[in-house]
């Protein structure tokens, strides 16, 4: 290896002696979630200020641990706080081939859509996006047999291969898609994975990918990039036996400690001992390639037509024409998607659609039929009520079952709230049935009625909130979520006014004095003021009563016969 010119050696010596002032702290994120890539990866981050371009470059080293020689699955790392607008680096490939290269696909997404190459997204081709798209230099993208010490503790299994990705995001803080700062102490980032997608030997740069799973399939990182700056361009080391350094997954990292700064000083002073970094950081007088200063291997995120990146980084894409790439993409979509969406994606939409119909149509319709004066006059309100509620509950069960099949773990607030709502609906069914049985025997309201009504008033608004949280998880646009929120508010206000108006109408028609006279006769004597199927316990229509005990007794007798007839119908 040719030595650096003398002036470069002097510069390196000055930089090494100034490491205390640089206060570099290593930043690493390691997460090992299980067999065959339920996200088993480590990421290290450093940034270096490029004097030539007057911009900060982000150096990313990514290790993807694969088990049992698996060819399936993909992993991704992204800059941004949400999928929409994030700058994504999606990796996939076959470690068992003679030349085990790992594809690194630079993508982004608009709203709730599958990730696409940045050049294929319209908003990144507008004039305002000019000079706001970072260039990506891919240094390493390969699989190697794993020879380290890590062993998956639950399975007592070592990885068979490790996918090594090293790339530089030049001028990363100018990214237009989301807020990215080179001085942030808590820069939002994302990770995600799908462990079981079969790529069918098509690892092209624009290959369609299936959606990640909830739970173990994605997560957040908040990295201290301010203190990840190094005075020399370098990739940070990775130790897969440790977890997080200089970042957290739930908020802002703590300030650097003396031990972390000491470790950073040591890393900078000895970075040439890393054979990869030593080779990359050295340039020779005869023009040896130096990717730290030479942009010949740079892959702009807006790749020119007909190219998928640098020839060294993506040989498949550089040797494939636009037509061939389009054909491959269409074949992938035909195998895995319907109009660009995966089957799993459509199932999530079906899950949400069914539950929206259940809570916006089914259960409200059952409540309306119970209080409908027309159905009460026909003696059918209770039968209609429980029939519609039962059908809505069947829809609820189907929607929850689809969500359960789609989820590989129960770890999100949305899931916990959904389980709680399902439990409450089961309790509602039991309370409604027991109230009905008790009312037939006692001819009066019990605590079961109040529990049934109160629980219903809690469950419905909670369900609306959970629907909105599910839409947020699926990255629906704010306008769509605002429409759903408006619909929920309208329903709540409508039923509050409708039920209150129903109660007022009954009081006016029956007369409060008559109701008080009936109740004064003792427990069980006001059954004519309340039909057995009225779960809310409001006064019945007594507008045809005249003052006097004979009229009241006559009406009570008529209502008793009516109740017996309806009870027989209900038992049928």
Please, could you describe this protein's structure?
This protein has 572 residues and is α+β, with helices and mostly antiparallel strands. It folds into two domains: 279 residues, Cellobiose dehydrogenase, cytochrome domain (Immunoglobulin-like, Sandwich), CATH 2.60.40.1210; 228 residues, Up-down Bundle (Four Helix Bundle (Hemerythrin (Met), subunit A)). It is built from 14 helices and 16 strands. The longest helix is centred in the C-terminal third of the chain and has 33 residues. The N terminus is likely disordered.
List the helices and strands and how they pair.
Layout: H1 6-17, H2 19-22, E1 27-32, E2 40-50, E3 55-66, E4 74-79, E5 87-93, E6 102-108, E7 116-117, E8 135-145, E9 161-170, E10 187-194, E11 218-223, E12 244-245, E13 247-248, H3 258-269, H4 275-280, E14 298-300, H5 315-318, H6 322-336, E15 337-338, E16 341-342, H7 343-371, H8 373-377, H9 381-406, H10 413-442, H11 447-473, H12 478-510, H13 512-520, H14 549-571
Antiparallel strand pairs: 1-2, 1-12, 2-3, 3-9, 4-5, 4-10, 5-6, 6-7, 8-9, 8-14, 10-11, 11-13, 15-16
SSE class? alpha+beta
As a whole number of angstroms, the C-alpha radius of gyration is 33 Å
Tell me roughly what share of residues is in helical segments.
40-55%
Number of domains: 2
Q: Widest sheet: strand order?
A: 12-1-2-3-9-8-14
**For the record, what CATH class of the largest domain applies?**
Mainly Beta
Distance between the termini: 93 Å
Spatial shape: elongated
Region (Disordered): 279-326, 538-572
Biased composition (Low complexity): 316-326
Transmembrane segments: 346-370, 382-404, 416-433, 454-471, 477-499
Signal peptide: 1-23
């Amino acid at each position: 290896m040719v030595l650096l010119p003398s002036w470069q050696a002097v510069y390196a010596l000055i930089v090494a002696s100034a490491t205390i002032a640089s206060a570099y702290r290593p930043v690493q994120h390691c997460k090992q979630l299980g067999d065959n890539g339920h996200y088993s990866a480590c990421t290290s981050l450093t940034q270096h200020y490029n004097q030539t371009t007057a911009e900060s470059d982000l150096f990313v080293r990514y290790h993807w641990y694969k088990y049992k020689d698996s060819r399936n699955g993909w992993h991704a790392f992204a800059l941004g706080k949400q999928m929409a607008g994030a700058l994504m680096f999606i990796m996939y490939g076959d470690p068992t081939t003679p030349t085990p290269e790992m594809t690194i696909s630079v993508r982004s997404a608009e709203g709730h859509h599958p990730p696409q190459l940045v050049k294929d997204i319209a908003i990144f081709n507008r004039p305002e996006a000019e000079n706001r798209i970072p260039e990506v230099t891919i240094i390493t993208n390969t699989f190697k047999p794993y020879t380290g010490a890590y062993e998956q503790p639950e399975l007592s299994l070592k990885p068979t291969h490790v996918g090594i990705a090293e790339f530089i995001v030049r001028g990363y803080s100018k990214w237009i898609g989301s807020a990215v700062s080179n001085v942030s102490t808590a820069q939002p980032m994302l990770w995600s994975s799908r462990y079981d997608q079969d790529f069918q030997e098509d690892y092209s740069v624009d290959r369609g990918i299936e959606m990640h799973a909830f739970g173990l399939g994605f997560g957040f990182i908040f990295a201290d990039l301010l203190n990840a700056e190094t005075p020399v361009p370098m990739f940070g080391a990775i130790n897969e036996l440790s977890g997080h350094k200089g970042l957290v997954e739930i908020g802002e990292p703590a300030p650097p400690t003396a031990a972390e700064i000491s470790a950073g000083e040591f890393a900078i002073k000895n970075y040439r001992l890393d054979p990869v970094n030593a080779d990359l950081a050295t340039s020779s007088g005869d023009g040896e390639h130096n990717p730290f200063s030479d942009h010949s291997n740079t892959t702009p995120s807006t790749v020119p037509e007909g190219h998928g990146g640098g020839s060294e980084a993506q040989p498949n894409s550089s040797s494939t024409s636009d037509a061939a790439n389009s054909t491959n993409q269409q074949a992938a979509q035909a195998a895995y998607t319907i109009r660009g969406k995966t089957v799993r994606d459509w199932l999530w939409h079906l899950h949400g659609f069914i539950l929206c119909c259940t809570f916006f149509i089914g259960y409200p319709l059952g409540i309306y039929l119970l209080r409908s004066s027309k159905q009460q006059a026909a003696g059918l309100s209770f039968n209609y009520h429980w029939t519609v509620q039962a059908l809505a509950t069947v829809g609820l069960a189907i929607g929850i079952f689809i969500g359960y099949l789609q989820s590989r773990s129960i770890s999100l607030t949305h899931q916990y709230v959904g389980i709680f709502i399902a439990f409450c609906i089961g309790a509602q069914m039991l309370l409604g049935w027991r109230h009905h049985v008790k009312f037939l025997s006692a001819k009066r309201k019990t605590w079961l009625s109040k529990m049934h009504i109160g629980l219903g008033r809690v469950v419905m608004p909670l369900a609306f909130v959970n629907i909105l949280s599910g839409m947020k998880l699926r990255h629906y646009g704010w306008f769509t979520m605002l429409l759903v929120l408006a619909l929920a508010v309208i329903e709540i206000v409508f039923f509050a006014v409708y039920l209150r108006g129903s109660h007022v109408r009954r009081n006016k028609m029956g007369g409060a004095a008559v109701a008080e006279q009936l109740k004064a006769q003792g427990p069980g004597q006001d059954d004519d003021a309340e039909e057995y199927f009225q779960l809310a316990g409001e006064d019945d229509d007594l507008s045809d009563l005249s003052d006097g005990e004979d009229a009241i007794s006559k009406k009570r007798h008529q209502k008793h016969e009516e109740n017996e007839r309806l009870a027989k119908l209900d038992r049928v």
